[in-house]
Queue: 2 jobs
Job 1
Amino acid sequence: MAHKPLFELPDTPLMYPIVTLLPDQGSVLKLRPLMSSLFARHERLRQAIAEADKLELATEVRRRYLSEEAMLRQVLDWLGGDAVEGQ
Amino acid sequence: MTSELKAGSPQSDFLKRGYSHEEVEHIYALGRLYLESGNLRQASIIFDGLIDIVPHYPPASQGRAIVALFQRDYEGAAEAAQRALSADPGSVEALLLIVVSQFGLNDYNSAGTYLGEVRDTIESANLSDKHLLRVYRMLLARYRSRT
């Protein structure tokens, strides 16, 4: 069995401790009561994206819509999946 | 080092997009959960979305920086960490993320400069957060073993 030298540097610093730098804010348990409002917001965004496509809005505006829509879809997926299935 | 949202501050610009403080923080918590469980793609989607709707919310940029570090996208990590620092000047967390990014970019001079800034902040503010100090010491050891 080959042994690595004790003082050989790793390629990158160990990453797990880095995650502890993230602040502990909010709670995923409190997302469920927000589900209906997030779902409504997601629906409005989908309409806005369709409008943006029709009006050929600036790419940056459309990109932001898509980014927000993807985030909300991810949240709704996590909350149960049913809310966004079949769209 | 305060990364909480404050109404009336520049960080409250997210209100223009109709999100409450609580909504933003709970969505961020999901991004953090995805990251901690190793689901980088999902974490990235959450953090990117938050950055677009709340550009001055440091935790989202910090989360994005960590996703980029895991993906070895050190340029992207440095950019996200700088954004977090701009939103919260003096943030030790953001400074430490910049240091890790600079290590990845093999820019040890910059890493050393930022580490010095972290040391000064820790000493002047008498910080005692054990997670933060642990990461600082880890990166300092890494820096010293390189020079």
Job 2
Amino acid sequence: MISKPRRILISLAAIAAVAVGAIVALTGYLGSIELAPLPTAEVAEPLKKSLTKVNAAFTSSWKDLKLDAAPQALDHTVARRLSLALTGATPSLEEIRRFEKLATNGDPTQSWLSHLFEDQRYNNYLAERFARAFVGVGPGPFLIYRRRRMVNWLSEQLAVNRPYDELVRDLIASEGTWTTNPETNFITVAVIQDGENKGPDEVKLAARTSRAFLGISLDCVQCHDDKFGDRWKQEDFHQLAAFFAQADMTVSGVREKETKEYEAVYRGKKEASTVEPLVPFSAELKPEEGSRRDQLAHWITHANNEAFARAAVNRTWAILFGRPLVDPVDDIPLEGPYPPGMEILAKEFVKSGHDFRFLVRLIAASEPFQLASHSGDPVMPVTAEQEAAWAAFPVTPLRPEQVAGSIIQSASFQALDNDAHIIDKLRRYGETNDFVKRYGDQGENEFQEESGTIPQRLLLMNGKLVGERTGENPIMNSSTRVAHYSSSEKQAIEAAFLALLTRKPTPEELTYFEKSLIDKKQKPRAQASADMYWALINSTEFSWNR
Amino acid sequence: MNTSPFGACHSSDHLSRRFFLRSSALTGLGWLTPLSQQLARGAEKSGSRPKSVIVLWMQGGASQLETFDPHPDSAISHGAKAIKTSLPGIHFGEGLEQTAELANEFSILRSIVSKEGDHARATYHGKTGYRPFPGLVHPAIGSIITHELPAPTLNGTPVDIPTHISITPGQFPARGGYLGAKYDAFQLHDPVNPVPDVKASTDQKRTARRIDSLNVLEKSFAAGRLPELEKERTLHRSSIQRAQSMMSSHQLAAFNIKEAPKAEREAFGETRFGRGCLAAIRLVGAGVRCVEVTLNGWDTHINNHEGQLNQKQQLDPALASLIKGLKERDLYEDTVVLVATEFGRTPKLNVTDGRDHWPHGFSVLMGGGGLRSGQVIGETDRTGKSQDPADKVLVQDLHATILNRLGIDYEYEFMTSIGRPIALSDGRPIAALL
């Protein structure tokens, strides 16, 4: 622990350093000093092959439906989508300026992705998104569940691009303690701590496993056979649950105990009966060796278990687009039919060795991701049919932490990654949590699309975070800094639009805001700039992915 | 999709399903069960419908034995004292003296049973009428009411403040669930503080300028995009408008309990819960549909009697003043009041003199809204051995009763986003209360 006076001293020094650094670097972001361009990346050969197949699937489906595709999205727009999906915030002005200088031989999307994959924010943010599906958002059982450790572990796996099948096997078959083997938190989050059924809850684990890794909502048949189709029987669920029966809580953490059995009461029966572990389909893929959880883990992640690859594709697609390819994200029919792209993406993902970054690169490069969410001609706007067929990019709500992250990011010119100063990080952590709570977090139902709410609007119109980040503050806020240090109104407005909306202003917008800034000096100018920032943050465009 | 807690539901799927429901009843398909038909008719006869609901939520599990269902002088009372109420032969736990005097103003339900013994699950069950179901969040009763009833008005003026409010909700605020986040309760912490974020951060002139520049941005955003984007999906600009109406509404005063006379504030008790109940009356008076006020701290696994008494001292003045206040304002007939909890507590004391969770026969109060009062429904046994109380009432039956009383077709099946139709409530109205 640092003592209090010392902490204040450190903070003051930091503020001074930030201020001096900021003014020196400022001219760079505003356009007059040379910033280094981003390193270039190209569409690699294996990616090119897969991409041709994916694109063909979509273009032929559009042809069948007699739909035209929306025009190509701007490179800036694609970069914004990727930053929001993979780092939880809009790109910083500095990153955008470097992106704009990209050498012409580089592929913009692939170069931007290479840039993001190197960023610690990518590991951290995506780990949190994964954790929602794998362990949920709740605090979980007391002492034996450490969500933070789990997220850190996932972040480490993402940092080295661990093959996705290996990662999932680790979770399902994990053994040890929740602190030294953080992947065991996948099991301990489901532990019942009191009562007759103490220990890991097979029902919860089976439900989580089938949803997160197979994209099948098998838990719907926990109490009775499938009412809405005859695919699943009650046995299917309980036989899957039986794979978790031998997971046991011991002094040395999660262990397998071979004598434990799973019992269930079937509908219409009075007595509980012992249930043998059986997989619900493709039994030939299950190895006979290993512990029950080992066997299950290998069966789920088997290269020929298409459900596993489809579930990964669907979730990754949903993270990138804000909407899954098959909705809901964890209820993909086992025998189809599938939307175009799904089966090819799944196959290519398996072929890549379950390479997660490859999958992200492939989806990001695909035609649907590269399209605009608007038409080229305002008289003929995008139609619902186009959007439904992925012939136009869907407009979806941003998640609360993406909105908060973007507000905080936009107040500074440089990316707030791990190199960002400690006071920036501390402030961001506290502010984000408070904001997310008030904005309304959907928890595990993160792809349930909901309209904007009044508390959300009040929070963005009048709330503390926006007020502090757009108010007059020459040290901390870009709104004041662009007002004072840009060489022209146009430069200030462009910087604001790029920092907040990742696009340049339209001629009409430029004229409008030039009028509001021109001839104003000192405080009135800073206020006019703050008002512009406020308007940008309160626009639909800021809170929605497009 | 184009619905909000401030407006009636006009969605097309909703209308067509309603139409189907009506026409099927007309053609004799018998969609409605005889019981609900009978109840619906009965309710119509009794005149005007209540307009609002107040839920007082006893978080943690109030002990039926120390509150509304004591068994004086039995072994399971474990020495807890009981007091007489205004109903002959009916007792409450000590500490509820003011409420006991008003026992003829509500009905006492002593036989609520459920299958949920875990706080989170049982609270979900209590607030939504459904047990937790993976992949789906059911709406809380206040969300259903705001969704189903038309946008409220007060003396002909639309209500500009949120119409579904949770006060001091803690971990479990009322949620819109499959009806959408716009039906989430507006959350309010101790009403002693002003409502957050309703004050514009700049003067009027700058605010006007900000809104004006917003219009420029919205115009470029709309260009070439889906024509119904605002109306059917984002509701962004309409939410800003409603937020602005709320910010400038004099109805915001309803939140400000400091406006109430000192004597009234004191009568509710100088507690957070007391202030919440006072705010609830003021909000219902301003046209709000549903207010939920939570009193946390009932989870007495250790020293049950002492813990329960402490809770009752907060509940008693607030609840009694709430009923009296509603009556004085002529709002009691218009407002259903429900005092509920997630489960009761075990008849046995544990080794630390606490009582543990007991979902096999616990108590709630229901009154106001033209419901029949002064009745005791159900009975638990004096030995505490039975898990099967007489005249059992299920948690979902409370929901069906309230919705039915409000004139809402509780059996109506809503088509959820996962493509599964779910009834607003799958309980049955309690005939004795209607």
